[in-house]
Write a structure and sequence with these properties.
heterodimer; A: alpha+beta; Creatine Amidinohydrolase; 5-stranded antiparallel sheet; 4-stranded antiparallel sheet; 35% helix; B: alpha/beta; Rossmann fold; 10-stranded mixed sheet; 7-stranded parallel sheet; 47% helix; elongated
Chain lengths: 291, 602
Amino acid sequence: MSTRLQVPAVRPPRGTPTFTFDEVDLDRFRDVQRLAYRCAERVAGRLEPGVTERQAAARLRRELVGEGVRDFFHIPFAWFGDRTAFRDFRTPLQFFATGRVLTEGMPYVLDCAPIVDGYTADIGYAGKVGENAVWGRIVADLGAYRDLILREVKARKPLDDVYRAVDELIVEHGYDNRHRVYPGRVIGHQVTRVTLRRPVGVNVLGFGVRTLRTLGRELIGERLHGRSPLWADGRASRHAPTPGLWAVEPHIALRGVGAKFEELLVVTDDDAYWLDDEVPHVRRVRAAAGR
Amino acid sequence: MTAPAAPPAGRVVDAVGGLPTRTVVSAGVSLAVYEQGPQDRPLVLLVHGYPDTHHVWDEVAADLERDHRVVRYDVRGAGASGAPANRYGYRLEQLAADLFAVLAAVAPDRPAHVLGHDWGSIQAWEAVTDRAGPRRIASYTSISGPCLDHVGHWARSRFARPTPRHVRQLAAQSVRSWYITAFHLPVLAPATWKLGLAANWGRVLARAEGIRPRADHPQPTLGADAVRGIALYRANMLPRMLLPGRRETTVPVQLITLTGDRYVGAALSEGLERWAPELWRRSITAGHWSALLEKGPTVAGMTREFVDHIEHGTATPALDLARHRERPVGKDPFAGRLALVTGAGGGIGRATAVAFAEQGADLVLCDLNLPAVERTAELARLYGRTAHAYRVDVADGAAMDAFATRVAHAHGVPDIVVNNAGVGHSGTFLATTSAEWKRVLDVNLWGVIHGCRAFGTLMAERGTGGHIVNLASAAAYTPSKLLAAYATSKAAVAMLSDCLRAELAGSCVRVSTIHPGIVNTGITRGTTFSGTDDAEQDARRERFSRLYARRNYPPDKVADHIVHAIRRHRPVVPVTPEARLGRLMSRLSPATMRALARVGMG
């Protein structure tokens, strides 16, 4: 038996990833992301004082299912009040929706990740009921992070450096980095097309089982090449942005008020761009600039 | 009714030789009236308490007469005034009628400003809440003498809802009011006054409240005044307390609470806005009598500010802060307080400033980096507070003094001062140059000294208390061979705070020392390292920053500890777990700490 490794000539050398999605794929990803934002905006439009996080998360799920979503990257989350800043979060279980009641002036964040036909979106929608000047300021400043991340990724900076550049802007703004509370301190994670057929719609600890299996496979596969599908500030992220799709979710807070956005960043072999510029947080920044 | 005739306007009259300038007769009792100050200025009427005479106002009147027409009188039964035939002549209705009679004689056509103390304040409340009050009285400043009817309602509402807090308040005030019960017993009180208390009153005041003896006080007539004055209690206390009336007023009221008052507790004024909605609340660090006899200028100053505000609409920041405003109870614990934070351009300073703003405080912020501190002010304003940013070098003593003067003038004396500005430095003793020593000590130690001196003086002078927070470090009690200069500067800050705390305890200015520990702030980016070149310096800085980032203790939490230290009056607060452990170890086993110092952590 030969010990020589048989490598087909057509496959690219291992370890140098390439961008594998075509325009059709990107359109499908964009459609799912728009669908997710549409549902989140519909739920947000009907949120009023008295609603609990659990009710909001359930409404979001109903909206998504109503639009034909059958599986989730992770189940829909809703955070109200100072839970938008993840204050005193010590276990991942605290991310799950609670009985926290929305009151006047409270900020909230809706976060969902539907999968349609294997195409995954992962979005975060920040909002508030009534008046909240702090929230307004944070959301206005969030636009700077979107620009910064794109600029740094375009420059092919190592992902951990991009993470630290974001941290520096957060310090300059006087905010607090809250994405470090996410499992693995991640500001983002890679998104691929889920190809596994089952089990559909089964969740463990908030994540779809198909997701976990895909992510697990990715984690191991990428790790072998010195890369990580999770984007944090550790050594594992000390590599140039891997071509593909990244769900990026900078999450910042000032004391008890937190806000985030999350959307897909397309990293091609030689460029990078946000998958869609017609997202609510960009519209908000545009509207604020137009005033 | 009056004699002699009123002097012409504009002339300064004075109570020459202590003789009354006129006598007013009210219900058959002649009242000795003393006038001073320019006639054309706003009139301030001073009403004394028990067992005093108009002399208790000497210092206050001397200060006020510079720009006010000051009128005092001996209330019935005291000093040079006559006395009614029986105790019914001392009822509050009669005392209020006296006050109106004096006002009618000295200023028949212009409402006056009234300042009352003790029983003078109680009877002035009677006049202020009278139907004629708003017409005759333009403003009222009350010191240590609540309206008895208000107290009656105060006690009723607490008996009706005996929560632990209410029971505590009732018990505390009962203890303070022991003498009122004694005054109702036959024989005892008059005998006590006659058998020596009157002769020794000056000494009693000196011992109890540190009042320096002076001419005219206590007055020679004290013995007789005090015995007669017992009728004030016997004629009014029980009727008013048992059947309190609903006495409301539209007259603007400035309530001055004395923090060291042994007889009238601050809790008594809780809910006063129900009766006097136009209310300003201020406080002075003084005892019941020492407020007038030792802090006369402070009382005069507050009265002047209030009178000016009512007459001309001018308002000092301090007065503005003192105004009672409706707000949800307990929501903004720092509402109306002014906090000053140095080094507020980032890290713990910025987090503390924002935490203060969230809790309702208005802010004055300074830093060397003006854009950064302006950003902090911008964040603070999001909470609806005012915030002013300045560029100040805390290491520059003259600049700090000028800054303090400017702040006091423009925004008022701060209630909270946080000396936070500091720089990091790492290096062994032998490797640290004198320039490096100077830089570290200039900012870390001298910055705190300048801050404490400039603002501590203002706070002590103002006399209404306050809080100074000094940021030391866990390094203050954790020796390390690598932190020679830094740890020395911080240890000095800790000791300075301990000494200052003792000194300022008398003026109710509290001092807290905060020992943060390893906190993820910008201090690591500005840290210098002895005996290294630039490249090495950058590398170490980077390493330090990563270490601190990995430790990941946010400045927000330090800010929460600072807020807590102020609210709970904590003198020394180690913040992070390692800071607490270090403090514990430094007390349990200093030898261990000495051994660890050789390892050179940091």
